[in-house]
Amino acid sequence: MAPPTTRATPARPAGHILLYLRAVTFVLDILTGRSALSVLVPFALFALDAILCGLVIWKVPYTEIDWVAYMEQVGQFVSGERDYTQIAGGTGPLVYPAAHVYVYTVLHKVTDEGQNILLAQLIFAGVYLAALSVAMACYWKAGTPPYVFLLLILSKRLHSIYMLRCFNDGIAALCFWIAVFCFQRRQWSLGMLIYAWGLGTKMSLLLALPAVGIILLFGRGFRGALRLAMLLVLVQVAIAMPFVLVNAVGYFGRAFELSRQFFFRWTVNWRFAGEEIFLSAPFALGLLATHMALLILFITTRWLRPARVFSPASLISRIVIPIVTRLESPFSEREETLLSARAVTPQFVLTSMLTANLVGLLTARSLHYQFYAYLAWTTPYLLWRSGVHPFVQYGIWGIQEWAWNVYPSTPISSGVVVAAMTATVGFVWWGATNEYTPALPEEKPEAKKR
Predict the structure, then answer these.
(1) Which residues span the membrane (predicted)?
(2) For the chain, the helix, strand and coil percentages under 3-state DSSP, each to the nearest 5
(3) How does DSSP classify residue 256?
(4) Within 13 A of 264's CA, how many CA atoms are on the CB side?
(5) Nearest-CA neighbor of 255 among 270, 269, 242?
(6) DSSP class per residue in 388-409
(7) Among 32, 137, 267, 279, who pairs with 366 as Cys (CB 3.0-4.6 Å)?
(8) Residues 1, 358: Cα–Cα separation, whole Å
(9) CB 287: neighbour CB atoms within 10 A?
(10) DSSP secondary-structure letter at 88?
(11) H or E stretch including 93?
(12) pLDDT tens across 350-377, in order?
């Protein structure tokens, strides 16, 4: 009897493998921006996040932190109080500039003096989605690939800040992104007006001001930048006028209080340092010195490179001395034209402003949870611009998101917060250089000129 024969398993058709490879290539092309369908990714993610916002409001209980205090404070403003030192709520005195008062006065009226919490949450969902759409537009204008956009909608903490807390940081962050959007499109006056309003809502937007100054100097020239700086000041004076006329010292002392005492129990970033170090004057001065050093490093080796400024010495001789001693432009008319045309790209604007913002957050004395509104959409772009592998981008974002969702913060979570920001600053300084190519021709030696 013949032994039974076994059928050989047919080899997998090569066509199936080829089809699989084509599918993978198709998806990768979309995610990396090489497909015509890539443009649909931000729209799809935005629609998904709009649904998520509705689910958050529907399913997650609202948590009261500052909303009642905001309503109490603006209630006193509505009742006629104009002395800033006399305005206070359940969490303490009013410590934000005047635009905050005006924004929350509108919310006070439309939410039945703050009683209609659901309507307030829906309004802040709209603010969140508006900020998201503008941030996505800024990312796209700067050439960011679609796979980075996914990180913009995944933050649990960010949804909480907007829709479950109704913090004013959401309003300020929206103004920040609109200002970036305008500057990328060279709409200088409108951008400065929006930035000024955001600064008048919360002074956290001061962190980006060094980069804004350089962007305007390059984009509008010295005189144009000076006029826009005056516009910034005039907006702050105008919105403050009802309070300044009553108690100017009280207003500026409260609205822009730089000597505010920070409480260790609320810190997200420096808990691992210990309370004694956190509260010490040398620690505060060290952070300030680090902030200044990092700004000088980025200003001289990155942001001013288009103007061929490569060191602190050239910064002083080339930029500071002409402006401070003679109040004149450090550039000729031809140089201003070249800088405006060549240097101020959408990528230059976004990278510089987000870097300045991140440097300020890294060296801040104390970050509270609501400050994540300024960080959550900063990290994905800067990690991409740094050129690190996408796995590293997602990894750093992931541990950062984890750390900001630990409540209360711990020495480990606060260490991760600082480490993630430090790594991002280092990576972006090292890798984001294309947007800082010199835009001015190299000066010839005097001997050659003759």
Answers:
(1) 39-58, 117-140, 161-180, 192-218, 230-252, 277-300, 412-432
(2) 75, 0, 25
(3) T
(4) 12
(5) 242
(6) --HHHHHHHHHHHHHHHT-SS-
(7) 267
(8) 82
(9) 16
(10) E
(11) strand 92-93
(12) 999 999 999 999 999 999 999 999 999 9
What is the C-alpha separation between 8 and 261, in angstroms, rounded? 79
3-class SS of residue 439: coil
Q: How far apart are the first and last CA of the chain?
A: 107
Q: Which helix (H) or strand (E) holds 89?
A: strand 88-89
Q: Can you spell out the DSSP letters for 11-29?
A: PPPHHHHHHHHHHHHHHHH
Name the residue type at position 426: G
Is the distance from CB of 164 to CB of 60 less than 8 angstroms? yes
Cβ count near 448 (within 10 Å): 7
Contact 360, 291 (CB under 8 A): yes
273-318 pLDDT tens trace: 999 999 999 999 999 999 999 999 999 999 999 999 999 999 999 9
Give Cα 135 distance to the centre of its chain: 9
Q: Per the structure block, which two tokens stand in for 17?
A: 């493998």
Burial of 330 (0-12, 13-18, 19+ CB in 10 A): buried
What's the rounded Cα separation, in Å, for the pair 9 and 20?
21
185's tokens: 């499109």
Give the span between the Cα atoms of 336 and 16, in whole angstroms: 59
User: CB atoms < 10 A from the CB of 447, how many?
Assistant: 6
Structure token digits, residue 239: 């919105």
Torsional class of 85: left (φ above 0), alpha (ψ -120 to 50), beta (otherwise): alpha
Q: Which residue is listed with tokens 């050093």?
A: 293
Structure tokens at 405: 């969702």
Average pLDDT estimate for 206-226:
97
